[in-house]
Amino acid sequence: MFWTTLATCTVLGLQMLRAFAGPVDSSTTDVDELVMTPGGLIPKSNIHAVPYGATVHHTPSQVQIIGTDGAILHTAQISNGVKKINIAPTAPGTAPRALQSGYIAFANWRNTAASQITSFTTVWPVPSTPTSWNGQLLYWFNGLVPDSFDAILQPVLQYGVSPAGGGEYYSIASWFVVGSNAYHSSLTRVSVGQQLTGVMTLNSISSTYNWNSIFTGVSASSLSISTAEVLDWAYEALEIYTTSIPSNLPAGHTAMTGINIANGATHPASIPWSPSSDPGDSVFMSITSTSSTSGAVQITYPQ
């Protein structure tokens, strides 16, 4: 009965991540293939590669990609009152687990201080290679989310083929998923055991909050966004798709350490993470340190 209890974890995940399956035009969802992003299932035509140096600009009414010369390269309208994406798997052949969400192990925390989050760093190693390959897609990330839950900014490690590319290997990119659109940096291949440092930084505040997501030392993973929303939810997460047996996952565990969350020049006294796991299938998220400067969580796999 492996994976059978993921439905329980799915409900918990969807309560907090509900709006990643944001509103889209029904004429699109009727004909457009849904693909698996680190923010849920998104119409394939709504996946956008962001040129290096460009900025994703998010307002309440639209999302734009603005080039380094100020030219508008892309515009997507944000509609109200239209149906949300159905993020349930579309067919057993491509998604053997009939589940609504891929978030199976995660921890979250909401900043309630007067000072907003200004940076969020996490360090983790590239896990061992899964012993079996069945086209699975695995995502690990730290991420920031607004109270509306309509978006997520995240430096993402993936195994498998995502809408950004990839293969039977590990690679990294930064993503910004907002409503029914997903934006990503270039994908860079990484090696098992390589230490990754995912960093999100609030660079400035004007009429919008101006963020950058990057893996330290990998310039191609840089993604800059501007948004009118405050990003006050922090996440550490494992998200999986088309994964049917334990050997589709790495063995052992992944320690996500060096967690540093700043509020300007200060740090919270601690980070009281709320973990969510799938104990019935032996996929666990545990908290090993609530420090706001050197915190740690651990994802444990079933083999």
What do these coordinates show?
By secondary structure, this protein is mainly β. Helices cover 5% and strands 49% of the residues. It contains two helices and 21 strands. The chain has helices at residues 6-17, 26-29, and strands spanning 34-37, 40-43, 47-49, 55-58, 62-66, 72-77, 103-110, 119-125, 137-146, 151-162, 165-178, 181-184, 188-190, 195-205, 209-215, 218-227, 231-241, 253-262, 274-276, 284-289, 295-300. A ten-stranded mixed sheet has the order 6-5-4-16-15-14-8-18-21-20, with no helix packed on it. A hairpin with a 5-residue loop joins strand 20 and strand 21. The two termini are 15 Å apart.
- The averaged pLDDT comes out at 86
Largest sheet: 10 strands, mixed
- What would CATH call the architecture? Sandwich
Extended strand count: 21
Indicate how many domains the architecture comprises: 1
Shape: globular
Q: Termini, distance in Å?
A: 15 Å
**CATH class category:** Mainly Beta
Describe the secondary structure blueprint for this structure.
Elements (H helix, E strand, L loop, with lengths): L5 H12 L8 H4 L4 E4 L2 E4 L3 E3 L5 E4 L3 E5 L5 E6 L25 E8 L8 E7 L11 E10 L4 E12 L2 E14 L2 E4 L3 E3 L4 E11 L3 E7 L2 E10 L3 E11 L11 E10 L11 E3 L7 E6 L5 E6 L3
Parallel strand pairs: 3-12, 4-16
Antiparallel strand pairs: 1-2, 4-5, 5-6, 7-17, 7-19, 8-14, 8-18, 9-10, 9-17, 10-11, 11-12, 11-13, 14-15, 15-16, 18-21, 20-21
Provide a compact summary of the structure:
The protein contains two helices and 21 strands. It is mostly beta strands and 303 residues long.
List keywords for this structure.
signal, mainly beta, 2 helices, nine-stranded mixed sheet, disordered N terminus
